[in-house]
């Protein structure tokens, strides 16, 4: 299973960093239910802050876009993040006795800050495609993880999380983002992107964001 044409190339360019992210011990713990509850709650609190800054990055993509189609897609993502995806965090944290005010007041961990500010920095100094390359591991990595875990014989402990990212809706979104990436590559680099001097740099953005995802899971395991 894969998403589009560009993503498999970027994923291959990331080498061992990709499985270090998608097959991390944190992910294994979600699948078999062995992840300690306090690690999961700590991850969710940090991820709430992560999503705030990620929304800012997608909003930056709206202003970096060249076409209305790109603008519409990115604006819809900002809306979905702020008004839907963060709701899962508020709900799961609420069930554990953590109020939304506590989420907003939580102290951001450096690994979290490093990741989102890296993406924002790439977005500020690069173009739309640079920004998409830095955003892609987040969206498509969770898509891969969700699809794999949902299709496996997973424990019920974290079934809601697995169900969110393994869902048809989320998988459809991943295919849409992959199509957005493919169109953006064709538009900005051309039909043979791998021969362009830009290609290596774009792969670097993707790889660094992948490494920062590994750091985020590591952080999740140390509440
Ligand atoms: C550390 C971390 N990485 C990825 C995601 C997943 N995610 C973040 S934003 C978004 C929607 C579109 O960008 C998705 C799927 C997460 N929640 N936390």
TrEMBL record:
EC number: 3.5.99.2
Keyword Cell membrane: no
The keyword Hydrolase appears for this protein: yes
Top-level EC class: hydrolase
UniProt xrefs under InterPro entries: Haem_Oase-like_multi-hlx, Thiaminase-2/PQQC, Thiaminase_II, Thiamine_Salvage_TenA
Gene3D superfamilies (alphabetical): Heme oxygenase-like (1.20.910.10)
Keywords in alphabetical order: Hydrolase, Thiamine biosynthesis
GO biological process terms, semicolon-separated: thiamine biosynthetic process; thiamine diphosphate biosynthetic process
Domain Thiaminase-2/PQQC: 14-220
Pathway: Cofactor biosynthesis; thiamine diphosphate biosynthesis
Reactions performed catalytically: 4-amino-5-aminomethyl-2-methylpyrimidine + H2O = 4-amino-5-hydroxymethyl-2-methylpyrimidine + NH4(+); thiamine + H2O = 5-(2-hydroxyethyl)-4-methylthiazole + 4-amino-5-hydroxymethyl-2-methylpyrimidine + H(+)
GO CC field: cytosol
Pfam families: TENA_THI-4
Gene Ontology MF, one: thiaminase activity
Similarity-based family: Belongs to the TenA family.
Functional description taken from the UniProt entry: Catalyzes an amino-pyrimidine hydrolysis reaction at the C5' of the pyrimidine moiety of thiamine compounds, a reaction that is part of a thiamine salvage pathway.
Name of this protein: Aminopyrimidine aminohydrolase
Organism: Primorskyibacter sedentarius
Upper lineage: Bacteria, Pseudomonadati, Pseudomonadota, Alphaproteobacteria, Rhodobacterales
């Amino acid at each position: 299973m894969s998403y589009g044409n560009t993503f498999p190339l970027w994923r291959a360019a990331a080498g061992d960093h990709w499985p270090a992210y998608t097959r991390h011990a944190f992910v294994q713990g979600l699948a078999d239910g062995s992840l300690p509850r306090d690690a999961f709650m700590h991850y969710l609190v940090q991820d709430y802050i992560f999503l705030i800054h990620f929304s800012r990055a997608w909003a930056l993509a709206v202003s970096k876009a060249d076409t209305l189609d790109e603008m519409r897609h990115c604006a819809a993502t900002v809306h979905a993040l702020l008004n839907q995806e963060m709701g899962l965090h508020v709900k799961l944290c609420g069930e554990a006795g953590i109020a939304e005010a506590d989420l907003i007041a939580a102290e951001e961990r450096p690994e979290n800050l490093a990741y989102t500010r890296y993406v924002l920095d790439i977005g500020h100094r690069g173009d739309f495609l640079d920004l998409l390359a830095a955003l892609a591991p987040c969206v498509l990595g969770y898509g891969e993880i969700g699809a794999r875990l949902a299709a496996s014989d997973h424990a019920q402990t974290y079934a809601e999380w697995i169900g969110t990212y393994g869902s048809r809706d989320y998988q459809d979104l991943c295919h849409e983002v992959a199509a957005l990436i493919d169109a953006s590559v064709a538009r900005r680099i051309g039909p043979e992107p791998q021969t362009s001097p830009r290609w290596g740099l774009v792969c670097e953005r993707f790889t660094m964001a992948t490494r920062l995802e590994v750091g985020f899971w590591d952080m999740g395991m140390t509440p």
